[in-house]
Structures are given as structure tokens and as C-alpha cells.
Amino acid sequence: MRTLIVSGYGVKIAVEKGVLKVVNGKEKLSVNLVDLEQIVIVTSGVSITSKAVRSIIYHGVDLVFLNHRGEPIGRVYPPYINRTVNTRRMQYLAYLNGKGAKIAKVTAECKLRNQAGLLRRFSRNTGDRELKVMAYEILKYVDEVRNLNGSLEKIRGEIVSIEAKAARIYWPMVAKLLPENIGFQGREQDGFDPFNIALNYGYGILYSESWKALVLAGLDPYAGFIHADRSGKPTLSFDFVEMFRCSIVDFVLLKMFRKRWKPRVENGILDYKSRAEIAKNIIEGFERKVRIQGEPLTLRQAMKRAAFNLASFIRGDSSLFKGFVEDW
Amino acid sequence: MRTLIVSGYGVKIAVEKGVLKVVNGKEKLSVNLVDLEQIVIVTSGVSITSKAVRSIIYHGVDLVFLNHRGEPIGRVYPPYINRTVNTRRMQYLAYLNGKGAKIAKVTAECKLRNQAGLLRRFSRNTGDRELKVMAYEILKYVDEVRNLNGSLEKIRGEIVSIEAKAARIYWPMVAKLLPENIGFQGREQDGFDPFNIALNYGYGILYSESWKALVLAGLDPYAGFIHADRSGKPTLSFDFVEMFRCSIVDFVLLKMFRKRWKPRVENGILDYKSRAEIAKNIIEGFERKVRIQGEPLTLRQAMKRAAFNLASFIRGDSSLFKGFVEDW
Predict the structure, then answer these.
(1) Shortest CA gap B271–chain A (Å)
(2) Rounded distance, CA B61 to CA B34, Å?
(3) Which of A248, B192, B249, B324 is 20 to 30 A from A228, comparing alpha carbons?
(4) A5: which chain B residues are within 8 Å (Cβ-Cβ)?
(5) Which residues of chain A have a CB within 8 Å of the CB of B43?
(6) DSSP labels for B287-313?
(7) For residue range B283-299, what is the model confidence (pLDDT) as tens digits?
(8) Which pLDDT belongs to residue A164?
(9) DSSP letter assigned to residue A247
(10) Regions of chain A where pLDDT drops below 70
């Protein structure tokens, strides 16, 4: 995936004989369109000629515009079937053929494996054997997920209920790992204790990164599999984050809280300094090198790869959706 | 549907406080984005700022780029669900819910009605009563189409077979209307007689216009209903043209040939002059005023309207797909 990122102000994108010219004052960059897969325009100060747009489309290069928060907000699609168009089509059809069910199962399996992995990791660090035992209890649910059969409609509810059973093992163990004075009684989205509030904030950052990764891979973040397709809700992001919650948020916050860090909460809201500290740790956490099936990658790379793998599985270019499981 | 067409060379599109500025040398046009639904960039000499693209997306305005032949080749889609995204999603899902079957039936019905209409029209002009009798024979097949029940997969083949039966009535009547020396024995895509060759050329023009109308309405021309979804074939265009063949091509060519016009064919190919004459007549034919359910429209307007009606039926904004039937 060769991506050209164009940022700055007063930058001009033109084309001459199939070669893209990016001119920034006196600086000039020439890129052959055949060498590119994606062009991402980051700032508002870039101008592009319609001739360049035509040429970009003609070469099957993906042209994406970001907003000022760095989120992809627009992409140029040709009316004929190229890779991105095909990804979307196949994604909508995956609801109804077996692929959606397969993706839902793999996603859930990854979530459970990472929950178990996190517990095992802390069991090694703390010597607490109960964590390890409970990790195995969670892994039993992996088989329950794997054994599910039938349409997406049918298994969606069963997946959610298996995840709920695993959560009743996972969160009490997380609670055990936290200092007692935190008052964490279990995961509650509307909980007012500092850990639940910190989780909500951390998951917010995770959502935004997942959404970007999915859109850049050509997927529709609003058309999920486990989470029903509620129009207007980014349900594919909801599905996708399940695989990353442990590695990107739970792990980082557990480490922070175990070092006796505590956020300041006022009227149920984190103060500015606490938010900044959580954001800093989570963003740094994205650069943490993990091993995935033996291969070292940063979590950011792993997320991007999982999104592209999901897109290529949906398109049928890849026969396997691997999901994301950290080698804890 | 308010559309802004931008053409010319050295034209710049920028945005200031939500107002689009189109600057062409000293000429300057300001358009409030809230008043627009679509911006069509026609030439290669237009440049647009990324800030304007952001603003266009933000306002839900459809941005379309044409190639040098005037065909839409790219469109900017946001990753969230706006009207165009929704049209595509619903189009892919229409295969599998009842909507696709409904569209297939209406399309076939319109085709049959227009075949019958054309025969009735020539029956009035020529006084040949057999044409009128055969028009009624064709209309009997409308009921057969209407009575079809079941999934798209199931009825698709039945529609094709009903259309074939009607064709065995329609084309012999067309043959009867042609001067004898033309040697037209019936419709054959690979036929070498002048009328079949002229039909092929005329349908080619029709395809291109239909494709444009569908794409501008936000539809995927490659995802049809009657014609199976063969990847890479514009099967929705194939479906859509069925309703217009009679009014736009058959009628015009019949009139030309009945005036003793004859194309020059060399090695099975029309010569340049004959192609130009057919193209001129068909393009003028698009401006012919017809009545559709009593309302006067040019065929070009009627085609555009049918494409937008199809898109809004697919999205669910309109409860009825009317198709296109000329009041012959």
C-alpha cells in the first residue's frame, strides 16, 4: 500500500502525462500514478485540478480527503467497479451470505482471546494464579463461539450473550488488579467511578482510530455485523474495536492505575489534565510493539493491517479473516 | 435538484464562509452551498481547493467529475451515510429483498407497453390493422409479467422468457414496416443487414446516455436486476435501456428507413457518414417532446426523471417505481 500524504497550505496538485506533480512553492514532487495506491489530502490548503482527479481515477488510485481533525470525510469513487467500490458492495452483501457470520465469530473470538491474554499477562507479573485460571475459563467460551452455526441474524444474539458471560469473569479480575480505593465494581458504561470514566474516555480515542483505519481500508464503518445495522451508527467500528479494547485501552489504564495514578473527576467528567494524561498514554500505547503470530508490529500497524485484511476478506481477495490477537 | 455545472479552463473553485466561489478570470460566481444538490465538473481545466471539497461534503452536496466524453467518472462520497451512499447500499440490498423483483417487473412491463405503443402508433399512421392486433397480443404479456411472484432469482428467467415471446411478435411487425429491400428478418445482435447494424449503433448511444443518467442519480450502473449481476458489466444500464429502446432508437430508425434512408455498410461496419446521420437523428430524438401520464417532457428529461425515480424508490423515499411509458 503506497500512500501519498499531501498537507500544507498553497500546495497544488496537477498532472502531466500521467505523472502527478505536487508543487509547494519552490518544492516540487513528481510521483508516477502507477506507483500509488492512495492519496490522502490532509489540510484545507491544497488545490487539485480536475485533470489530476481524472487521471487519479483512471489509474485506480484512491483519493481521500480528511477534515481538520484528521478523519477521512470524503473519497472519490468511480462509477465502475474498482477495489473500493467492490469492497463496499461485498460488505453490504456479506450481511446476507455466510461471510458476515464468519467475521462476527472471528471478531468475538479475538476479543475473548485478548481478554484471556491480558489476564495471563498480569498473572505472570503478579504471580496471582487465579488470573490464569480465569483466563482459561474465558478461553472455554472461544470454543462456544467457534461452534456457532447459522446465519448472522441467528448467531448475533448468541455471540452477544457469550461475550456477556466472559465479561462476568473478565471484569472482576480487572477489579482485583486495581487498587482497592478506586471503587471499581465492574464495567458499567454509565459508572461514576474513576476507572469506568477513564475506560469510556480511552475507548473514545480507540473508536476514532478504528473508524479511520476502516474508512481508509475502503470499508463502510456504518455497516457492522455483530452490532445490528442501526442506520447512522458506526456499527462496524463497534465490532472492530472489540478486538483492540484490551491491548489499547484496558492494558494501558490498568498499568496507569496500578502505579497509583488517579484521574480527577468533577461531576462525573474527567478534568482537562486527566484527559490529557490518558490520551498521551493511549496514543503512546499505539506505538507499543506487540507480536502477532510471532511477527513484531506496533499496535497502530496491527490495526491498519487488520482493517485491510478485513476489507480483502470481504472482497474475496483473501480467504481468511485473521482478526487481531496479541501474543500476550 | 439544483445542479451547478462547472466547465472551462483556468476556473477555480474555492469556498469562503460556506459560500462557493467559482472564479473564471474576472468573472466570479457565488453560490450558497445550502442551495445546491449537485456540482458537476465537466472539463479538465478546473481546480478545486481541499477546503471547498470539505465544505461541499459537509453540506451533503454531490460532487461529480466527468471525463472528456462527458461521462461521469468519479464522485466524492463521505464515509457516513448520506443520500448517495444510502442509494448504493439500498441498491445492493434490493437484490435480496422484494424491491429488486419489483423493479425487474416494472422495467419489463414498460418495455412491453412501449413495444405495443410503437406498433399502435404506426397502425394509426399506416392504417394497417394487423399492427394494432399484434399490439394487443404484446399487451397480454404485461399481465403475465404482473402475475409473476417470488424472488428476483426465481422470476428473472421468467421475465426474460416472456420478453422473448413478445419479441417474436414485435420484430416481425417492425420488419413489415420496413421497406422490403432492407432484408431485415428480425432482431439479431450479430445480424449483417443494415437495420440490425443501425439498431446496434443506436442502442450504443442509448446505453451511454442511460449510463450517465443512472450514475448522476447516484446508482451503480453495474448492479442490475433482470440482467444477472455479472461483475464488470453495466447490468443496471442493460435493464434501464429496455424501457427506452422503442422511443429513442426503434422509432427514430423506423422513421429514417421508411423515408428510404439507407446506411452504407462496409464489411459489416457503418461508414462514417451513416454513423453521423444516425447519431444526429437519435440525439435530436432525445429532445422530442413526449407525454408521460399526460405530462409533456423531452425524452432526455423523461430519462433523467426515471433514473432519479428509480434511485428514490430504491432508497425508499418514493413508494412507487413508475418506470417509463410513453403515451404513444
Answers:
(1) 30
(2) 8
(3) A248
(4) none
(5) 50
(6) T-EEEETTEEEEHHHHHHHHHHHHHHH
(7) 999 999 999 888 899 99
(8) 97
(9) I
(10) 1, 229-231
